[in-house]
Amino acid sequence: MRNFRLVAFVLLVSALFTLSACKNREKGSADITPTPVASSGNNITQKPEPTDVPEVPTPTEAPVKEPVDYSVVQPNEIGEIPIVMFHNFVEDLNSTTDNQYTTSFSAFEELLETLYNEGYRLISMRDFIDHNIDVPAGMKPMVFSFDDGTPGQFSLIEQNGKLVVNPKSAVGIMIKFNEKHPDFGLKGIFYLNMDKEDKTFEGAGTLKERLEILLSYGFEVGNHSWGHFDFSTAQSRQQINEKLGRNEKRLREILDGEKFYSLALPFGSKAPEGLRDAMVKGTFEGVEYHNETIMAVGAQPSMPSIHVNFNPEYVGRIRAQGKVQENYDLTFWLPKMTKERMYISDGDPDTIVVPEGMESKINMDKLNGKTVITYKK
Ligand SMILES: [Zn+2]
Predict the structure, then answer these.
(1) Gap from CA of 266 to ligand 1 centroid (Å)
(2) Domains delineated in the chain
(3) Would you tell me the crossing angle of helices 237-254 and 207-216 to the nearest 10 degrees?
(4) Ligand 1 centroid to 166 CA: how many Å?
(5) Beta strand pairing status for 220-223 and 189-192?
(6) 134 Cα–ligand 1 center, Å
């Protein structure tokens, strides 16, 4: 790997990139070649401005950002990103014997405060996959994921004849927290078993109404298989196609045009070696599915998607602490997720800023037009 001091690579963007990144994106095409662009000092490479731009920006232009002092912020945009996994939420932890997978509403509220104060900011799974990370300089991106569509995660209640989000649900708590701290982010992906039908989330409204309201807040849905299938017991490719494709098909029947793009493995179980390709892509009864990330159950922060060693077919997640604290849960990890180890943002989603020497960890084929900038730490 070439070792440049303060060199920026600029990749050409395909015209469709910016707005269509979420649908049917092709992998980096062969005609994209890196062009080194020299920059000086600690300045960010500036985009060329047209010469006739008036001095006073028009209202449609984005406000000019203050340049970030890398020596102060110390961005590391190849560092790790925690993807937190939640299951059940209850009012009173004494009501459950489950030590690992159940959180109380009050503990969840406290957790949001802790994460916010420690500089974590939520991003969506879509943006994690695309490495489209837009959190302020110095902040650390984090993904929330919720498995099994349990009622404590999200439910609706009827208020004056209208369906509203139950304040006694994880989503209700997040909405309230977001009013106080809108910069924390209102994001998260819910991995669903569509065979549960109206048992998904429960409460008021139809499943369609629940999903529509959930998505209207910007939350996402993911595939958790038809019947919570243990993929380690899969016998054939066709069987996997059915477990994933039937779930996908039911989602599309309920919400026309909606697609899953990420799978969380039930029980964290991988399919047997020869059948793994069917976990990523397949077809069932004419419905195609494509899982761009496949989520594990444990037990560590994830590499970002542009890391050379990132494996989209087995992405680590961290279990939120349950009734008791255990090794490798989020409480265990928080003090270990140091500034040196984790992804620290430079505040600009279009640049990948890393300490000098770390650029060798970046998969340059995945930059999608983003600029790499290195700095001396
Ligand atoms: Zn599950």
Answers:
(1) 5
(2) 1-18+30-41+344-377 (no CATH), 80-336 (3.20.20.370)
(3) 80
(4) 22
(5) parallel
(6) 29
